[in-house]
Amino acid sequence: MTLNDEMREKLVQLAIHARHWAYVPYSHYAVGAALLTASDKIYDGVNIENAAYPVTVCAERTAVFKAVSEGERDFKAIAVVTDNGGAPCGSCRQVLAEFGLDTVVLIADAEGNIQQETTVKELLPGAFTPKFLGK
Ligand code: THU
Questions:
Q1: The domain spanning residue 82 has which CATH number?
Q2: What is the full per-residue pLDDT of the chain (135 aa) written as tens digits?
Q3: Which end of the chain is more exposed for a tag (fewer CB within 10 A), N or C?
């Protein structure tokens, strides 16, 4: 799937905006995500930290869980925005892989510069997917 420039910009801007809602009292590293569904809806997400550190949920997973909890399971793309163009963590790659290896991943910085445009397949080669469970 190729995204047009308008959609790239829209997703990145929505992720930038969402970042303001990140709950990051410990790391101060705000992350925003914007997930485009196959039905052309967009779900944003932020990282939500916790005093029990490992309970923290990343922005990407927040966006995916919001979408899935509303019945969306097919995704075209996700934009992820951090201060410095940080890449999605392994757990988020795995959660994205559950719903499709071809989802486009835009990695951008806080100014909206896209540092990398890739796919879940490229970010998680050899992923463990539902097919191994016969799904
Ligand atoms: N974080 C994300 O939200 N997404 C990622 O893919 C990488 C890490 C968050 C988790 C934590 O709140 C902060 O960034 C620092 O690790």
A1: 3.40.140.10
A2: 789 999 999 999 999 999 999 999 999 999 999 999 999 999 999 999 999 999 999 999 999 999 999 999 999 999 999 999 999 999 999 999 999 999 999 999 999 999 999 999 999 999 999 999 999
A3: C
Give the total number of structural domains in the chain: 1
Q: Pick from 28, 61, 89, 93 the residue to mutate for probing ligand 1's pocket: most ligand atoms within 8 Å of its CB.
A: 89
Tell me if 87 sits within 8 A of 108, measured CB to CB. no
**Which long-range contacts link 5-11 to residues 24+ away (Cβ below 8 Å)?**
7/36, 7/77, 8/79, 8/106, 8/114, 8/117, 9/112, 10/34, 10/42, 11/36, 11/42, 11/77, 11/78, 11/79, 11/106
* Structural domain for 40, as ranges: 5-132
